[in-house]
């Protein structure tokens, strides 16, 4: 059954990692390395079953192939899921053990932060392998990618506003934010600076209070956020929140936020949004600022260059809206088309013969 799924969606490799001493149980998935080594974060989650963890890593790794391709990176897609409780199971040995497994892949997979893993965890992995990004700034690295993800979401939101309202200024626009964690707090700061009004919700009261105090945001209940009077909805917490229940409640004209896999069903729910006249900014393009920032570490991190690349998300959004209009397809499908077309073109470009280290030119 697993090989069938791998064949169906063109997966390359699935690696099971177990370490008795630290209790590590992790699965690394490499989806596609046409564009380069697979880069994707390591997510720690208390999966109820091993099947759930496998399903998640397969889905997330494929998502990274599309995210990296659409962002113009020379990187393929992969991901790690770690089965465990992030509050109880972390230790030095745990992450160093994962680092050794990543190292054994010889650079085919590079890891970084994802849900429930931190810069400190990446620093531990770095003790065992160079194939890790998002390590501490003291190593000359980019550190926590969240602020750059936030900058990317802000740039994407400006281009989305242009599509929905004819002008990319966010001054005077009301943005409803679901989840004001690491990414959204910085994003709210940028929006506040530009003169946007904020409506926020979060399961964490402290996060809500911080946004209210620092940015004059209006707090609403967890379920209220979907139906508030606002111009833009920014989902920055969970996946699957654009669905049969929530879309009918929405009064916004656009959706642009950092959460991964926002559409519960890519086809059905992007059509529902289009029918309501809501402009949807595809999540993996909107939130690619983090991966763009960590990928810059592979060239020797330069913050100015990284920021410049993150700001390019505005132009990537421009391409997606153009493809969607020209081909008369949803923005979600347009993003997939952009990513797939880049992968296919580079695959063809690379099909021409070229000498490499295993194929030396020899005289005589
Ligand atoms: N951090 C990055 O660089 C990055 C990059 C790409 C994508 N993302 C995605 O963006 C989202 C936010 O990432 P983050 O790093 O800010 O995470 P975070 O954990 O710091 O923030 C998420 C916030 O959402 C809140 N939340 C959780 N469930 C909620 C619910 N049901 N209703 C309302 N709020 C809820 C949490 O309390 C938290 O404050 C995640 O989906 C993540 O996968 C993050
Ligand atoms: C490589 C990481 C910074 C990627 C990030 N966790 C994402 O989902 O895009």
UniProtKB/TrEMBL annotation:
Cross-referenced Pfam families: ELFV_dehydrog, ELFV_dehydrog_N
Glutamate/phenylalanine/leucine/valine/L-tryptophan dehydrogenase C-terminal domain location: 143-351
Keywords attached to this entry: NAD, Nucleotide-binding, Oxidoreductase
List of catalytic residues: 79
Binding site for NAD(+): 179-184
GO biological process, alphabetically ordered: amino acid metabolic process
GO function terms (MF aspect): nucleotide binding; oxidoreductase activity, acting on the CH-NH2 group of donors, NAD or NADP as acceptor
Alphabetized InterPro entries for the sequence: Aminoacid_DH-like_N_sf (IPR046346), Glu/Leu/Phe/Val/Trp_DH (IPR006095), Glu/Leu/Phe/Val/Trp_DH_C (IPR006096), Glu/Leu/Phe/Val/Trp_DH_dimer (IPR006097), Glu/Phe/Leu/Val/Trp_DH_bac/arc (IPR016211), NAD(P)-bd_dom_sf (IPR036291)
Family to which the UniProt record says this protein belongs: Belongs to the Glu/Leu/Phe/Val dehydrogenases family.
Record-given protein name: Leucine dehydrogenase
Species per Swiss-Prot/TrEMBL record: Lacicoccus qingdaonensis
């Amino acid at each position: 059954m697993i090989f069938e799924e791998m064949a169906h969606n063109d997966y390359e490799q699935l690696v099971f990692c177990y370490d008795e001493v630290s209790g590590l149980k992790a699965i690394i998935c490499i989806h596609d390395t046409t564009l380069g080594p697979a880069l994707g974060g390591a997510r720690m989650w208390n999966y109820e079953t091993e099947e759930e963890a496998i399903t998640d890593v397969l889905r997330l790794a494929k998502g990274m192939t599309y995210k990296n391709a659409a962002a113009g990176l020379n990187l393929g897609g992969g991901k790690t899921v770690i089965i465990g409780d992030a509050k109880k199971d972390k230790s030095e040995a745990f992450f160093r053990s994962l680092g050794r497994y990543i190292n054994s892949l010889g650079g085919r997979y590079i890891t970084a932060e994802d849900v429930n893993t931190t810069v400190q965890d990446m620093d531990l992995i770095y003790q065992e392998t160079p194939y890790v990004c998002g390590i501490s700034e003291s190593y000359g690295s980019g550190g926590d990618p969240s602020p750059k993800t936030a900058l990317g979401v802000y740039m994407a939101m400006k281009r989305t506003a242009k599509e929905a309202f004819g002008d990319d200024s966010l001054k005077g626009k009301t943005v409803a934010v679901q989840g004001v964690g690491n990414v959204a707090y910085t994003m709210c700061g940028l929006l506040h600076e530009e003169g946007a009004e904020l409506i926020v919700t979060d399961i964490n009261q402290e996060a809500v209070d911080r946004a209210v105090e620092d940015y004059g945001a209006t707090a609403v209940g967890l379920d209220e956020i979907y139906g508030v009077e606002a111009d833009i909805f920014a989902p920055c917490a969970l996946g699957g929140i654009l669905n049969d229940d929530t879309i009918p409640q929405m009064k916004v004209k656009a959706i642009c936020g950092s959460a991964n896999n926002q559409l519960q069903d890519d086809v059905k729910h992007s059509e529902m949004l289009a029918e309501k006249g809501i402009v949807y900014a595809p999540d993996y393009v909107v939130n690619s600022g983090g991966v763009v920032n960590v990928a810059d570490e592979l060239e020797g991190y330069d913050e100015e260059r990284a920021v410049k690349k993150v700001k390019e998300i505005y132009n990537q959004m421009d391409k997606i809206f153009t493809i969607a209009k020209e081909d008369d397809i949803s923005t979600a499908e347009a993003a997939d088309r952009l990513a797939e077309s880049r992968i296919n073109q580079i695959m063809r470009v690379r099909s021409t013969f070229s000498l490499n280290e295993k194929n030396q030119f020899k005289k005589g």
